[in-house]
Amino acid sequence: MGKAGWMEPGRNTVGVVLVVVLVLAYFLVISNMELSRDSQFYPPPYRQISTPAPVASVWEDPGPYHVAYPRDYRFLLEDTAVCKDPSPFVLLVVPVAPADVAARNLIRSSWGRQAEVRGRLVRSLFLVGVDSSLGAHTVQLKLQQESQQYHDLVQSNFIDSYRNLTIKTMVMLEWLAAHCSSSATYVVKVDSDMFLHVPNLVDLLLQPDTPKNNYMSGLVWWHSPVLRNPWDKFYMPREVIAEEEYPPYPLGMTYIMSLDLPHKILSVSREIKPIFIEDAYLGMCLKRLQISPTNPPAQDMFLVNQPHPLSPCALSRVVATTTTGAQLMMNYWRRSQQPETRC
Ligand SMILES: *[C@@H]1O[C@H](CO)[C@@H](O)[C@H](O)[C@H]1NC(C)=O
């Protein structure tokens, strides 16, 4: 009796729970149907691109701190002879937003223009993903025209966004490993808002003690803390990165790499899930390769958030600096073309 009396309410509870679960399941199914119906009426913007630009087939949600890098992105545009004959000494790669024609033209008409510096061949390339705005179709058509005109664009079929910068860097490495590792010696990744002093860059690379292999340099951050404030743009929870510091890496605004590295970094990156912080991720890959980044010979070669305008002396020593806009960049470029101030 005692036992049966104890069982009765249990059976009732099971019944109630079953009903609740069934009702919940029913609503879940209905609301999902609503969702998928809605998304037929409002397709994600990238579906509007008429050019075949399918997003990588196996899509897995990378969550908020990682990026989707299934290694099967395709190149949509790569109509360029860069790294074919003749091979450059250094290749400048500029990641830029697909729609930012102005930034590309500014670079084409300033520091990206020099073809031969100190007797060495310098080439530049722009790297873009796929635009996902409402105007994506127009952006894509313009990119195609631009590519036919300048032959300096490489486009991959991932969605170009700030949170996807690591994907951009990884596809850059793929492209370099496939096309440049046996021809060019160095690659420099430069953000489109930077001023790059190409003669000073070439001088640095030509110095006898600049390594030709396993070399990565720039403004090296040796003790970059992993930020734990959830409101920070670069917040990273302990579950993702347990260490208190990232391994050393050069800041993403401008870094130099010898061209044996793209292939090496790609191979170890298979073992390290890519985080959205592009430069710190490269640091993690370098650490796995047991390669340390190299400080530039002088600390004033790579400047970040310096008071502007730079003095003639400071400008004559700089390799790369942040700028405040197009005008200042053009100003620095013109000044860098004039007879040099030594100090
Ligand atoms: C990053 O790119 C992938 C592949 O194109 C895309 O599925 C994802 O939505 C993009 N993420 C962001 C934040 O744009």
Automatic annotation (TrEMBL):
- Set out the biological process GO terms recorded for this chain's protein: lipid metabolic process; protein O-linked glycosylation
Q: What class of enzyme is it?
A: transferase
Instruction: Write down the EC number.
Output: 2.4.1.-
**Which keywords are on file for this protein?**
Glycoprotein, Glycosyltransferase, Golgi apparatus, Lipid metabolism, Membrane, Signal-anchor, Transferase, Transmembrane, Transmembrane helix
Principal place where this protein is found? Golgi
GO terms (molecular function) for this protein are:
N-acetyl-beta-D-glucosaminide beta-(1,3)-galactosyltransferase activity
Instruction: List localization entries.
Output: Golgi apparatus membrane
Any Pfam family hit: Galactosyl_T
Topology relative to the membrane, per the entry?
Single-pass type II membrane protein
Q: Where are the transmembrane segments?
A: 12-30
Which PANTHER family does the entry mention?
BETA-1,3-N-ACETYLGLUCOSAMINYLTRANSFERASE (PTHR11214), HEXOSYLTRANSFERASE (PTHR11214:SF115)
Protein family: Belongs to the glycosyltransferase 31 family.
- Specify the protein name: Hexosyltransferase
Q: Where does this protein come from, organism-wise?
A: Knipowitschia caucasica (Caucasian dwarf goby)
